[in-house]
Design a protein that fits this description.
Shape: globular
Order of helices and strands: HHHHHHHHHHHHHHHH
Protein name: DNA alkylation repair enzyme
Number of domains: 2
Oligomer: single chain
Number of strands: 0
Pfam family, one: DNA_alkylation
Distance between the termini: 60 Å
Largest sheet: none
InterPro entries: ARM-type_fold (IPR016024), DNA_alkylation (IPR014825)
Number of helices: 16
Length: about 250
Amino acid sequence: MSPSVSTAEQVRAALAEVADPADAVHLQRFFKTGPGEYGEGDVFLGVRVPATRAVAKRFADLPLDEIDVLLDSAVHEERLAGLLILNLRYARAGKARPRDPDAQREMADAQREMVERYLAAVRRGRVNNWDLVDSSAEYVLGAWLLDKPRDLLAELAAADSLWERRVALLSTFAFIKAGDASTTFALCERLLDDRRDLIQKAVGWMLREVGKRIDPALLTGFLDRHAARLGRTALSYATEHVDAERRAAYRAMR
């Protein structure tokens, strides 16, 4: 590899420079890395998210193979940095908007490869905590599927992996921001009975965003139909901006 091309090792070194061992202890507790917890065994350097983002921006041209190296790391912040760099590369490719048909195909092929690598990382369990999912799903997979069939999200929502299910839900944030709640509602209906806390929170969060960003009536219409089946956590998140009287009525339906 040419010396002028950035490497995963350089990203690792940059993260190590801004790591704080005291923060590592706090982050391991915060992200539930103990035995039997959802982040069991994850390793932290002690790098705060703003610092990780700053490192990612420095290495925004990191080759995809080197991003894969980061995504396969045992260290949480290295995986996060890899995902943030992938976001940057995907967004930059999308902004190019070439007029030449060959260049358009090349851009689409580049984005497709990024999405495929992202999905591969998800499926091999490397996007395996809520911050990793929430920092990437809408920006890569969701952005890619904005103008494409979304059957893949139904497959992910039916997966055994908690993280694949959360990726499916959080990918729909891209659609919500574009004014489309249909896929969000379809996945939330599919996951109504999923009682994993991180799925409950994601369901409620996405429903709340529909009401906030698109139309409150869409949210209340969904809740009128489904509040009785929503878990307590999901309902609490979803009704955060609903008036108190209506919120109490939904709670009484459970």
